[in-house]
Each structure stands twice: as structure tokens, then as C-alpha cells.
Amino acid sequence: MAHWTETKADKRERRVTAWGMGLTYVLIFLAVQATVSLLLICGLIGRAVARHGWNVLKSQAYLSSLIKPFTAGSWLGWLTIIADVAIFFVVMFIVKCQRKGFRKTVNLQRFKPGLILPLLGIGLGIGLLLESLGILVSPFVSLSAATNGTAQKFLSLYPTVSGLLGLAVVAPIVEETVFRGLIFNTFRKKLALPAALIIQAIIFGAAHGNIPQFISAFGLGCLLGWVFSRTKSIGCSMLVHGSYNLAIALSVLLAIFNKTARSWGAAHAGYWIGGSFLLAVIAAALLIFGLLRLVSLTRKPGSSRAQLAAQQRQAQQQWLQWQQWQMQQQQWQWQMQQQQWQWQMQQQQWQQWWQQHPQAQAQGQGQPQWWSPSPSPSPGPGSRPSPAGTLPPA
Fold this sequence. Notes:
Blueprint: H1 8-52, H2 60-67, H3 73-97, H4 102-105, H5 116-137, H6 143-146, H7 149-155, H8 161-190, H9 193-206, H10 211-231, H11 234-255, H12 259-267, H13 269-297, H14 305-356, H15 358-363
Helix pairs in contact: 1-3, 1-8, 3-8, 5-11, 5-13, 8-9, 8-11, 9-10, 10-11, 12-13
């Protein structure tokens, strides 16, 4: 049977298709976000024009005052939630237009309840481990000096209800659906697993829009891609992503926006550093527990050395049994050939006797019931040979 060999042209076409589909989903993600923002801005400007006339368009300060509330704080959180919900429904519409099942396309499957604690341990552990450094330096570095303008706007989401809801619930669902369910799945089908992991993590980091978040989002994207490929369920990566964002939000609220905690940490540097180190140790323990438990629960059957050795022994026994069966088949065929040869010899003897005694042939004297003058077919595998020892009459 001929085997199909992939040519260089096939590889190039496969890679181009993966990149094209992956970048298409990224552009859809960014385009929906921009469209929702523009529609909201146009709605605010239209409302101002309906109230105060077209002269408000000449006042740049008035237009800035309309848009400024949506660039930080609670309004930015609600805008993010609306954009994420719009992205989710657009993705569902695209998948439906391709006549594919949405749950099957993004691997939205049930997972074992025993995975919940390991997944929460991974998300909370990696989040607290990264933020322990920020908590360590927060009493000694001001918020404005530690972050740029984009990061400050992002941090303004944490002390709001809409920000916490969007970061811990809505964003993980939508981002995992797009970046792991669609983009990572697309690259994984066309490229090798390491390449698919790195590429989707780079895209995930770039979508956050600033360098500090790109670095952390790249590492988180690699981790989420590994969890998704390990569990085969987008719900697991959603749980890790949500718990990570929740850990980041709680630690930032405690260490950065709590002026009392910051002032106490500046006055008691030794206790603050010790507490930060203890938090890092706890976070590392949670992360290690979650990773080891996840690997243990998602291990494929027969992946241990003892099980592999048992499978090899069983395969060898089956091969020996098959060899014995082949030898038995050959012996049976040889016996059948011998019996068929004896049958033919008996027929030849009867035919010679019949020709030598035409008078007995006319009277039908001594003719056995199993013999007929016409040549009989050879016995099949399931038929029994003729009774031996029946010879013509003397």
C-alpha cells in the first residue's frame, strides 16, 4: 500500500492556511473591540448634538469631557464587558456560518470535577507568585512612577465592580474562546504543538497593547495553551485564566490601592519583605500542587513504565499465539491435501475396476453410494473426507 508523502508545497500551503485563519480571528477580535468603542463614542456625540446643537463639535474640551469617563474606572469596565460580549456573539455567528458545532469547534467539553482544585491552584499560584514582587516594591514606589499611562488605565479597573466582573468572569470566557478555542486550535491542526503554543502566546500578549502586560500575557498564554492541550477542554483554561485574574486583582487592591497597607509596609520594611516572601512560597506551593495534580489526573492510560512493559509483554504473547495459529493452519492444509489425494486415488481405482468389468457396471453390482461416475469436486475446508478402506469388489 503506497504512503502519501507531504511535499514542500503542501507544507507551505498548510502553514499559510494556519497563519491566515489565525490572523483573521485576531483581526475580528480587534475590529469588534474598535467598532463597539466607535459606536459608543458616536452615540455620545450624537446625544450631545441633539441636546446642544452642532456647535458642540467645535468645542474640543467638551468632547474630551464626554469621552474621558470611558477611558478609565467603572465606565471602562462596562465598555470592556460590552465589547467582550459582542466578540463572543460574533465568534458564535462565524462558527455557525461555517456549519460547525460551536462546542465542538472550541472544545467546550465537560471535565472531571477533580480538576477544579488543581486548576484553581495553578491560576491562583501563578497570579500570586507574580504579584508578590509587585507587593514587595509597592510601599517604596508610587503608582504613577511604576506604571505608564496605559497600565494606569488598566489598573483603574480593579477597584470597580465592572472591572472585577469583566476581568475575572467575562474576559476569561471570551479570550479563551478566541485565543485557545479558535486560534490555538487552528495552529495546532496545521503546525507542530510547540510552534502553535508559542505563536498563540505571542498573539495573546500583543493583544494586551503594552509591553509589561505582553511579557506576563506571553507566559500566561503558554501555560493556558498547555492546560488546554492537556485537558482537551476550554473550560479548564477558562478556570485557570479567571483565577489568575482574580488573584492579580485582589493582590493589587491590597498592596497598591490600600494606602494604609502601603504606609505600614514602608514603616516596617522587614515585616513587609518577610510577608511578601511567605506569600511567594505559598503561591509556589499552590502552583506546584496544581501542576503535579493536573499531570496525574490527565495522564493517559498506559503511560507509566510498568504499564508500558506489561503492554509489550502482552503484545509479544499475542504475536507468539498468532505464529502458533499460522503453523496450525499450515498443518491443517497439509492434512487436507493428503486426504484429497487419497480420495482421488480411490476414485481412480473404482473407475479402472468399472472399465475392466462392464457386466458388473451394467447391473450396478458393488457400486458404493458415495461414488458417482462423474468427477466429484474436491472436498472443502468444512467437509469431511470419504470413509477410507472401501475398495472395489474382487
